[in-house]
Amino acid sequence: MAMEDEDVNAAVVANNNTQTGTAKKGGDVGDSGACIDRQPDKVVHQAGLDQTAGRGSRSGPGAATGIRVLKVWLVEHARSYSAWPCFTCTHGHSCLLHLTSSSEQLHSSERQCFIQKQRNMKRNGSRGCVTRKTRFGSRERDWLKGHTQRGCVCLYGATADPQPPASGPQASSTPQTDLQLVLCSTSTTVEELCAQRDGKGLYVQLHGDLVRRLDPSERPLQILYDYLASMGYADPVRVQQEAANSDLSCLIRFYSEPPVNADQQERTLLKGVFSVRKGKTQLHKWAERKVILCGTCLIVASVKDSLTGKLHILPLVGGKVEEVKRRQHCLMFSSAGSQAQTYFVNFDTLADYQRWHRQASKVVSQTVSMVDLSCYSLEAVPEYLFYSQDITHLNLRHNFMSLQGPGGLLNLPRFSQLKSLNLSHNRLGVFPECVCEILTLTELSLSCNNLHVVPVQIGNLQSLQTLSLDGNHLSSLPEELGGLSQLNSLGLSFNNFSHIPAVLERLSAVDKLAMAGNRVETLQLCTLARMSHLKNIDLRLNGLRWVKSESPDAVSQVTQLDLRDNCLDTLDLSSICNLESLHCQRNQLATLTLSGFTLRMLHASSNRLTTVSIYPVPNQMTHLELSQNLLEYLPDWVCDCRKIEMLDITHNLLSELPSRLLNSLSLRKLLAGNNRLQRVPDLLDHVPLEALDLQHNKLAELPESLFYKALNLKFLNASANALESIPPSSQSEESLSTLQELYLTGNNLNENCGALLVGHQNLRVLHIAYNQMLSFPASKLSKLELLEELDLSGNQLKTIPSTVSSCKKLHTLVAHSNHITVFPEILNLPEIKLVDLSCNELTEIQLPDSLPATLQELDLTGNSSLMLEHKTLNLFSHITTLKLDQKSTTTAGDSLSSSTPWNHGYSEMSGQRNKLCVSVLTVDRFGDGVEACYGIFDGDRNEEVPRLLQCTMGDVLCEELQHSSIDNVYMCNTFLTSHRKLGMAGQKLGASALLCYIHHKPSDPGGYLSLTVANVGTCQAVLCRNGRPVPLSKVYSLENCTEEMERVKRSKAIITEDNKVSGVTCCSRLLGCSYLSPWVLPKPWVHTEPLCSQDEFLILGNRALFEWVSYQEAVCTVQAVRDPRAAAKKLCSLAQSYGCKDNIGAVVVSLHIGEDSCTCEPQVSTTDRGPPPAPAPVTVTPGPSDPAMLSSSSGLVSEFNSETSASEVGSEAGSTASDEHQSSGPAPRPERRCSLHPATTLCGIMVPGSGGSATHPGLFQRQPSCATFSSNQSDNGLDSDDEAPLEGVISNGSKLEVEVDIHCCAFQLRSGSTESSKDFDLEKRNSDYPNGKMRRQNSVVVSATNGCLLAVCGREIADLKKSPSTCSLFGKKLSNGSVVAPEDSHNLIEVALEAPKKKSGYFTAPAQQDPEDQLIVPPSLEQEVREQLRGQNPLVSGSSAPSIIPSFKEPVWDHPHPPAFPSNLVPGPGPASFLQQEVYDTAL
User: What is the phi/psi pair of residue 1053, to 5°?
Assistant: First the structure.
């Protein structure tokens, strides 16, 4: 007992809440091994110290979670507490803990409880967590539930693995001594936590980047909560839960000690004791000396292991470091100059030798004495650095430099030759005045340091030439700054200046005013006139509203002016007479007046200009950009410009082009697309035109002389016009054409244009898609020998000429959406990379013996008749991206039951990129009931993040739907959780993301359908409603979103001239790129749109798609194409033909929503059918269905392997649940029913609707939804034909699946003979699995195995549904990370193998009738139904049915006459068996 008490005392340490306290005993250990502090503020757990963890077992919610604990830390501080409130210990003892200033007393009963716990832990092992991810036990959960201001902080040691904590049982075998769990509150400070741990400090690391020491007054948990709130989490409880998630360590992590970085230490300081010899002669002997390599010098001590004696400093810049071959691991260090000194250093190990050699080689290769210590999380420079007195350039950017300390900023004046100092991004808060004492400085950067004031001591730096103060909070400058006569560059961008500082008038050497991102609303030109030295002025992103000229004096010195992204509506700069370049894009300008004396470049796109006045004519102008304005005609002065080379007038309202413009002798590039041009003037003489863009006009023809007058023309884009022909390449047989790229997509060209293309023998890119071509002349194609890219999509081609093999340089062939039946002879081409023959009529492929190694992508989807042999598939195995249609294994019954009110198609094209950075997510059957999920993810230049999002975001949405039914909440949390799950990949990489979720309202599962859209970045969604586009998403780019631009500016981000945050991305919201936080956030835009019958389809696309294809054109394009996949292909092809070079992704979702969100199909009238044919037991047609439905997706169970195609089903099936009295006439496709209007069924008795022949009013009919069997899988070894069929059950002795709806609804009466056979109206509103749970509960699946009948509720079948990530979310994965349209076929045998492990499913049928599975019969029919049931129940083999119907619900039918049971409800051997097969009991 005494020994155990000593163990406990040694394991318990207690402190109070003061800064100075003594450790005492305390704590409480529960079954989980967790220790709860007696204070409400904090609890500390040390994980990984118990070597016996994991040997015990326990039950309850926390059985698998907890913390391995050996020591309990109870914190004590010097403040005096009278008493803490009572609490209850684990054994129920009421204890009171008294804390004084010097001691803490623990109640004896609680102490005994604790000792008993320690005994149990020694005897049975720790019952802590088995993984680091699931470290919480019940005690920890109770702590968090106490208050939302409570939480936990994970503290990592100095040797913590930068990877996120591992999960899985294997993680428990190795103790994790580097991790501590601290339970505390938001008011707990660093000082308190360090006092309880006897630690020196805490450190925080964001996004795996820099590590910062926390101030003693900072509160770690509050920092964590604020970080999560800035991400977008709003619910305090959710913030508390996320803070406890170990995955968060990739975003924010706390350290108890500064983490060790070997690479950082190597680059900042190398030291050790080695054998050293001075000089090249043998006079000096080898001696053990301490050697240091720091900065630019090699330091050698005169005595061993000490720096107290004389130090020898050897400057290395410009010197030499060489290997001494005669001695192992020896280097020779020599300084530069005539008085060079030499030291030989012999290292002990090869690793030391290589490390010193590598670092010293970098130093000697420098031309200036520069030391780069940026991004090292330094608080001070190494003290040995001050021995390098030759340093002239010191870079300390992105650190956390402090003023005090031996290496602090106060000591920087010790560098006597320092000229350049970079202290940007150091969180200084105040201007370090000590820097003003370094009088040798010529360059100083203090950007992004939260500075508010510049001290007057700045005037001491008389040698200063460059001063960067960008990204601070400055609003004024001291007058002393004006005394810096040599200052020629001053950066004041992204501060808080409301006017141009007057001190600039005295800075006569400054020629550029950099004040972008400030708050200057009014620009007085007279102010600029007084600053005669300013030539370049940058005032973009200022919210500038007025530019005023109060005096007639000319502003003669300004030559370059940047006014982009402001709020100007009119601009008159005629007084700036020497202006050479003006940028005024993205304003609201209606008029623009300039002086043209020296004007060379004008950029005025994205405004509202109707005219531009320039006087005099700008004869020096070379570049004019007026795109995206409201110009109806070109100003006359444009044609008079003698030196104009580039003219961009796209996206205007121009109806004609002046003849003088095209005949200009200087114009080389003319962009006139997206206007209203009806003709292009003829060329009168040879012109130097090299690029001509005329797309999206109304041109019926091109100038006849275009190609032989513009001999330098290399690029022509005339897509989206009404061309019926193209002009000849020359007037004679010999052509001098230099045309290399020709885009003619979307015209009315026919095969005759092929002959006119022959003259362009230098043609490398030819896009002639979506025309009227029936063929391409074979002889003409063979002459285009230099062709590299050919797009013939969307024509009416039946074949591609074999002469395509003459195009030896062809690497891309796109010919989708044609009628091609024969695979072209292109696989012999040596450089072929991409072949797209999707949406054609291919039947077979003739392949060579080997495929070219260059082939990277082959798309054969949409060829329904294509059958590939295994040999062919083996040849395709090396292709990086192979796209094929999945074989459909669904039956007719499956097709009918799985039909959804939408279907989709998608397309991805890599463009001119080497990799595909776009991924899509397509799930037609998502979650429970009639739901769907679609998404698109664009990584811009990375492919990792889009693939990760594709594979995880569907699962995350499923999980979030379990926690909340509010669209804004679950969608926002889905994005934020996905952002966290990106882990280390999301630290530096990011992606735009868009997610669409089609669903019913949670409060009304059978009501209206809604579409919830969430997005970050530039991916967009457009809904077509009544033929018009309805944008559903928000583009989060700095150029398109003013409020986001203001938010980023307030955060003091540096926005470059191309409107990118820190020059990285133009998006202000992304998933990933967490190192750009708080400027770039993952919180999405969320919008919910109710769906109606006017909604035709939904389009999802990335930035590249909608940048080139407008909303209206996209809608019109999809409307003209019935197939969603072909429509998506067309959208991508159009974008490429219009000029897009990036990755393109498009998803088209066709919607079939009825009135009131009804998803039923419209009723189709049927004709009477002839007499039934003879029974055909081998036929695989369970009911009247369109044979085409065999290929549609289904969620029902099928016994056929997933490799079995629909055609193979017909030949292999030996026995089916087919109607033995089928009609010989054409069978109508049964209706798809929605949750608003379900099929009228009654526990196997169905009220006939539109399907079926003439019936008496109120007829009932049994409705089996599907039954598919194979004679090869009979359990008793007999074919189903040899077995006696079970009366009332259609089975082959192996398995039977029959699903019955129990609903009662209005139905349509039909007249006709009751003697004719009735087909089954096979209907099922939702699938059981694998692609969705059933929303309804009144569903029964009856299974027969070897004669034993099992009744299983549909909701239990739903438990067998796999995770969406492995089943419903993702179909066949492609090598490029994309997914084929998911199929719903599933192998029953594979599911059955897992079923015995479940507590419900096929193998556990309820013993009694489920109370939810009740008959719904109108009161008028009760008596007749009772009689029928009494007569039928004894006939069902193996069943034990009740003699009466348990209950009846209120009638919902409104028929005046009670219906009668027919005599031909179920197919069977004869009429006598019809009544015996009518009813299945729900408790068989």
Answer: -80, 150
pLDDT of residue 860: 94
Amino acid at 424: S
pLDDT at 934: 97
Q: Which of 816, 775, 809 is nearest to 789 (CA)?
A: 809
pLDDT in tens, 1023-1040: 999 999 999 999 999 998
The answer to whether 359 and 331 are in contact (CB under 8 A) is no
Output the pTM of the full model.
Answer: 0.73
- C-alpha 692/C-alpha 696 separation (Å) is 13
Whole-number Å distance between alpha carbons of 205 and 255: 8
Sheet with 570-572, side-by-side order of all strands? 570-572, 591-595, 611-615
Residues in the chain: 1484
Cα distances from 1476 to residues 755, 1286, 1293, 1471, in angstroms, run 75, 11, 19, 10
Contact 1372, 1380 (CB under 8 A): yes
The residue with greater pLDDT, 1417 or 345, is: 345
Q: How far apart are CA 1249 and CA 1304, in angstroms?
A: 12
- CA-nearest of 511, 610, 633, 518 to 560 is 511
Query: Strand 179-185 relative to strand 43-46: parallel, antiparallel, unpaired?
Result: antiparallel
Neighbours of 159 (CB within 10 A): 10
Tokens 């999945």 label which residue? 886
CB atoms within 10 A of CB 662: 23
Cβ neighbours around 1308 below 10 Å, total: 10
- pLDDT value at residue 143: 82
One-letter amino acid for residue 481 of the chain: L
User: Residues 6 or more apart from 735 whose CB is under 8 A from it?
Assistant: 707, 708, 729, 759, 760, 761
- CA-based nearest residue to 185, from 133, 243, 137, 138: 243
Q: In this predicted model, what pLDDT tens digit does every residue of 950-963 receive, in sequence order?
A: 999 999 999 999 99
Q: Which residue has the higher pLDDT, 303 or 1313?
A: 303
Task: Find the helix or strand (DSSP H, E) in which 1015 lies.
Answer: strand 1004-1016
The residues facing 1095 across adjacent strands are 1025
Highest mean pLDDT among 539-553, 764-778, 1169-1183: 764-778
Q: For the stretch 437-448, what's the b/e string if a residue is b when 16 or more beta carbons lie within 10 angstroms of its beta carbon?
A: ebebbbbbbbbb
Distances (CA, A) of 409 to 399, 412, 423, 459, 464: 12, 5, 10, 19, 19
Task: Give mean pLDDT, residues 648-674.
Answer: 95
Residue 1341 contacts residue 1354 (beta carbons within 8 Å): yes
The arithmetic mean of pLDDT across residues 124-142, rounded, is 50
- The encoded tokens of residue 1142 equal 């990036």
1274: its two tokens? 């009979």
Mean pLDDT of 225-239: 94
> Angle at the Cα of 402 (from 401 to 407), degrees rounded to 5?
85
Tell me how far apart the alpha carbons of residues 621 and 581 are, in angstroms, rounded to a whole number.
9
Range 141-166 average pLDDT: 73
Encode pLDDT of 1086-1125 as tens digits.
999 999 999 999 999 999 999 999 999 999 999 999 899 9
DSSP string of 509-522, one letter each residue: T--EEE-TTS---E
The sign of the torsion formed by the CA atoms of 1356, 1362, 1365, 1369 equals negative
Mean pLDDT of the chain: 74
Which of helix, strand or coil describes residue 1043? helix
What CA dihedral angle connects 1217, 1221, 1225 and 1228, to 10 degrees?
A: -40
Q: For residue 1451, is the peptide bond before it cis, meaning its omega torsion is within 30 degrees of 0?
A: no
Cα–Cα dist 568/565, whole Å: 9
Of 1008 and 1280, the one with more pLDDT: 1008
Half-sphere exposure of 174 (CA within 13 A, CB side): 9
In tens, the pLDDT along 266-283 reads 778 899 999 999 887 766
**1351 - beta bridge partners?**
1342
What pLDDT was estimated at residue 138?
75
